[in-house]
Write a sequence for this structure.
């Protein structure tokens, strides 16, 4: 499918890409894909996960990373069949049904709103490393600044994300090299005690048992949320047929280096028992090594990572709201674009809701991050579920000759897609067992009820939007 075909209307409905500018080049898409896998979940959430699972967290990230690759290849197959900015909701609408598209679009929008709150909360937490200022104040300032940045053209957004991601990638590679130097050359305060034996000598590789490792899965999966963001950029990519498959195929090495590799290095230099929830393991590792300047630099990097993710969230929410509106499943006002091709009203509406994060930081500054992480995880995983189900439905139709074959088929499908669905189901069960994550499962039925009622209202007021025929 060519880029020209992408711009065509679909069953009489406006394409989600109409009016957008294809301003994202190959290097920007690559770095957005890389940066999407490096965020608060790794830099801040890993501290809690290490304290709950010890070195076995490395295995949890490796297995979950494989599942993420299956999900991304399923998404890639759909993207090469029809690369559109609406992505997940578009595919759910076409291959599962109009209600599925409605739920997926609004749930993914909610995911990024909640994630924006999560990331701005993390950024406010990082600020306390240098200054004793209220978290809510930092959260307010960051939200306003990022909102302003998102009103710029998509080309500049891509450029900002490119450099945000470059900072994160450079920092993690630098940290891995420093840890390798500590292990081999023995410099720094941790030089005498650093050893790979820390991976199994301090209570074993599974110090909290396999159950403890399983209980970290929701934190691990949260760390990978946003890798699917490349799907949202499809409608604004200059050459989606080349850039998107290349970005997706780099998922395995990104996970191997930035998660598995980084954790192996950190936990070899500093015993896992030294890490605590709420404190970045990267910052803690440098402090243990006596490299105070390094800790300050890493704190700046993780601050950048959080702001980058929040910035991506504002980008995504505006596009998702516009896709819903174009398909008659959201207010028509969200379809409006600025002269530079940015969805002003949708982004403004989402940014206003992200200000809830400021209130959360004001009311519960110590618990804010934990509250929003679990809810973001369950809402984000719904998008993954719909990607996998849509891909299975699409593959069945393609094999019957009812729709064109994709040029980028998911290897091992449908078995890999089925395995990924089963793994996500296990994570949801573990969230129900974990009292800290259970709150998200309480909120999910309320959100589902709200969507169900809203859809019934939509069917009455706009039957066309509730009966969008799959092709």
């Amino acid at each position: 499918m060519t880029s020209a075909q992408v711009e065509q209307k679909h069953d009489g409905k406006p394409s989600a890409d109409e009016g957008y500018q294809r301003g994202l080049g190959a290097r920007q898409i690559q770095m957005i894909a890389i940066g999407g896998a490096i965020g608060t979940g790794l830099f801040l959430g890993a501290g809690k996960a290490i304290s709950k699972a010890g070195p076995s967290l490395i295995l949890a990230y490796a297995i979950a990373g494989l599942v993420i690759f299956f999900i991304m290849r399923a998404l890639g197959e759909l993207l090469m069949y029809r690369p559109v900015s609406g992505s997940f909701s578009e595919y759910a609408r076409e291959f599962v049904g109009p209600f599925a598209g409605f739920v997926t679009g609004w749930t993914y929008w909610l995911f990024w709103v909640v994630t924006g709150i999560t990331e701005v909360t993390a950024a406010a937490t990082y600020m306390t490393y240098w200054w004793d200022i209220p978290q809510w104040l930092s959260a307010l300032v960051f939200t306003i600044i990022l909102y302003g940045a998102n009103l710029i053209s998509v080309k500049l957004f891509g450029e900002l994300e490119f450099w945000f991601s470059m900072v994160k990638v450079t920092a993690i590679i630098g940290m891995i090299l420093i840890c390798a130097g500590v292990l081999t050359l023995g410099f720094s305060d941790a030089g005498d005690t650093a050893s790979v034996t820390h991976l199994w000598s301090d209570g074993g590789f599974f110090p909290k048992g396999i159950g403890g490792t399983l209980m970290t899965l929701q934190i691990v999966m949260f760390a990978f949320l946003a890798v699917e963001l490349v799907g949202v950029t499809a409608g604004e990519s200059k050459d989606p047929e080349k850039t998107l498959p290349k970005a997706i195929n780099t998922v395995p090495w990104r996970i191997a280096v930035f998660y598995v590799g980084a954790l192996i290095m950190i936990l070899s230099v500093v015993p896992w028992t030294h890490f605590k929830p709420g404190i970045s393991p990267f910052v803690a590792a440098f402090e243990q090594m006596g490299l105070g300047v390094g800790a300050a630099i890493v704190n700046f990097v993780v601050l950048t990572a959080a702001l980058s993710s929040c910035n991506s969230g504002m980008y995504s929410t505006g596009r998702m709201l516009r896709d819903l509106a174009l398909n008659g499943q959201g207010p028509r006002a969200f379809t409006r674009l600025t002269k530079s091709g940015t969805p002003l009203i949708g982004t403004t509406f989402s940014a206003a809701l992200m200000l809830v994060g400021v209130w959360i930081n004001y009311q519960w500054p110590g618990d804010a991050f934990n509250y929003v992480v679990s809810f973001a995880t369950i809402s984000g995983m719904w998008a993954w579920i719909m990607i996998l189900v849509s891909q299975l439905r699409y593959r069945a139709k393609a094999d019957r000759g009812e729709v064109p074959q994709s040029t980028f088929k998911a290897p091992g499908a449908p078995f890999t897609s089925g395995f990924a669905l089963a793994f996500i189901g296990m994570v949801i069960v573990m969230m129900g067992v974990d009292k800290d994550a259970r709150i998200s499962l309480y909120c999910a039925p309320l959100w589902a009820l709200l969507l169900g009622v809203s859809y019934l209202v939509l069917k009455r007021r706009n039957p066309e939007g509730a009966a969008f025929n799959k092709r």
The radius of gyration is 22 Å.
